[in-house]
Amino acid sequence: MPDNKKPSIRYIIIDRCIRNTARDYGLSELLAAVNEELIDRGVEPIKSRTTIYTDINDLEFQFNAPIEKVQKGNRTYFKYSDPNYSYGNQPLNQEEIEHLRDAANILSKFSGVPGFDWIHDITSKLEIGTFKESGDPNVISFDSSEFLKGKNFIGPIFHAIVKKKVLKISYQKFKSSKEKTHQVHPYHLKEYDSRWYILGYLPHIDDLITLGVDRINKVEVVKNDSFIDNERFDFVDYFEDLIGIWKEKDVKPINVKLKFSKKMSDYILTKPIHGSQKERSLDDGSLLVELEVIPNYELENLILSFHSHVEVLEPESFRNRIIELITDAKSKYE
């Protein structure tokens, strides 16, 4: 089991506990919370409350944490006098920047390996992030939803996937007034259109379930349930013929033929809609595109997002579906 000499993990856990206004944390509670997560991460737990007390002093004096002691009876608890403070918002020091650059170099070795296409984006962000900490913070920004509901669950879910932990997930669909609980063996996290999704195995249906993270109300690790390893689902293949996330069972890919206007053609050429895309330029500057994809809600939304700059040519069933959606939208303005 790895040792616990690196205090940064403990700082993160302690910071999270102190920011939690729903309960009180003294040294004993912080020690228990830290050790629970350290053990869960496969890290040697700490044995003394003195270590926690030293970490609190480090947060206060090295990272300017506005920690105050609150006396309740014979117990002393820790709170932040500034509720907006977070250890995670502190700027990186030079040593941490160098560590991130080293991490980027290591991760870059995986570029091009099937299933690791995301590595290129991560390493780019790491390189840019390290420059951002030491340079102008206004150089670049990323398209992300800062206020996405449920984003606080992404870390615990990722950790459960890596550590092979069964999760109890409280989930509430957008149009449902009732919450439902799923006991999920988590296999995969997927981001699409600035939203995150978890794909996991449900033994009682012997199949995958897809849950939007923004509809999750609670995530808990199930400690007395054995994790079922993923030996059936290849997520590279799973998403290969898909735009977006949602996939109806037993629905096969179709050949979709589209015609894009001259104004839109360069955008489609420089940012293909899908990996299966084949294109042919016409004399009038328009562009014919063929895709081999599974028809779903996200594909429909994508086609509609191009407005009058695209026409669905084939298949007739999908063309009629788009006509139906456009007609319905048009009726709302009549």
TrEMBL record:
The major lineage groups are: Bacteria, Pseudomonadati, Bacteroidota, Cytophagia, Cytophagales
Q: Which InterPro entries match?
A: CBASS_pafABC_assoc_protein, WCX_dom, WYL_dom
Ranges annotated as spanning the membrane: none
Q: What's this protein's name?
A: Predicted DNA-binding transcriptional regulator YafY, contains an HTH and WYL domains
Record the organism: Ekhidna lutea
Decide whether keyword Translocase is in the record: no
Cited PANTHER family: PTHR34580, SLL5097 PROTEIN (PTHR34580:SF9)
Q: Which domain of life is it from?
A: Bacteria
Query: Is the DNA-binding keyword given for this protein?
Result: yes
The alphabetical list of record keywords is: DNA-binding
Enumerate the spans annotated as WCX domain.
Answer: 253-327
Domain (WYL) spans: 156-221
Q: Which GO terms describe its molecular function?
A: DNA binding
